[in-house]
Backbone:
């Protein structure tokens, strides 16, 4: 073996990544450890990161403003809940009761739901939707609605699995030039 090759092999060995000690790794989310609670200020970073994974944009100002409006606003029918596994925030849902908008009797609207990719398919979104629906029911409404992009088949599959069907409203839009 030539000197250059020997040096190359040694360098490769030196640069080989050292596997992390399993004891120092954060615990993986588990179905058993899931729980749902209202959002807290120190959850916002995790929420912002999760949203950025889906949308590709970090919107810190938007989330701070949303937190200001929705945290502790249960009395006005607004809800911002998070799913946790141990001490980790792994999902969130936001929604509110809206009265007589679009001529509709009061109903609950879910306008954001998201679960961290490594915690999906464990029932977190199901629990989040059940929890916010229970909040809506306590506020006296018997219907929940949402709006989603036609291309987002993942979120469509999720809402369909929960029993949601096409409603009586259609979205309309136009460019304002
Ligand atoms: C959609 C989403 C919220 C589901 O979260 P989740 O915690 O994985 O959902 P659950 O484990 O509660 O799944 C409930 C059901 O939804 C359906 N579902 C969830 N993920 C699915 C997938 N990848 N493919 C097909 N169906 C799926 C299934 O019917 C599932 O029931 P099952 O596990 O018994 O088959 C999650 O995938 C996500 O955050 N996606 C991106 C969200 C997004 O685009 N948000 C922007 C719009 S607000």
Residues:
């Amino acid at each position: 073996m030539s000197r250059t090759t020997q040096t190359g092999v040694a360098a490769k060995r030196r640069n080989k990544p050292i596997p992390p000690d399993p004891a120092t790794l954060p615990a993986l989310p588990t179905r058993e450890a899931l729980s749902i609670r209202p959002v807290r200020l120190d959850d916002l970073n995790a929420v912002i990161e999760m949203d950025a994974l889906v949308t590709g944009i970090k919107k810190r100002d938007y989330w701070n403003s949303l937190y200001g409006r929705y945290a502790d606003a249960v009395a006005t029918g607004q809800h911002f809940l998070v799913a946790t596994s141990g001490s980790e925030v792994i999902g969130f849902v936001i929604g509110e009761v809206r009265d007589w908008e679009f001529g509709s009797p009061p109903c609950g609207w879910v306008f954001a739901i998201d679960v961290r990719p490594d915690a999906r398919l464990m029932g977190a979104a199901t629990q989040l939707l059940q929890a916010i629906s229970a909040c809506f029911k306590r506020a006296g409404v018997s219907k929940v609605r949402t709006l989603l992009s036609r291309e987002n088949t993942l979120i469509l599959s999720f809402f369909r699995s929960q029993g949601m069907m096409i409603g009586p409203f259609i979205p309309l839009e136009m460019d304002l030039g």
Observations:
- The radius of gyration is 22 Å.
- The first strand starts at residue 34 and ends at 38.
- The pocket of coenzyme A is lined by residues 54, 112-115, 120-126, 152, 154-155, 157-158, 161 (CB under 6 Å).
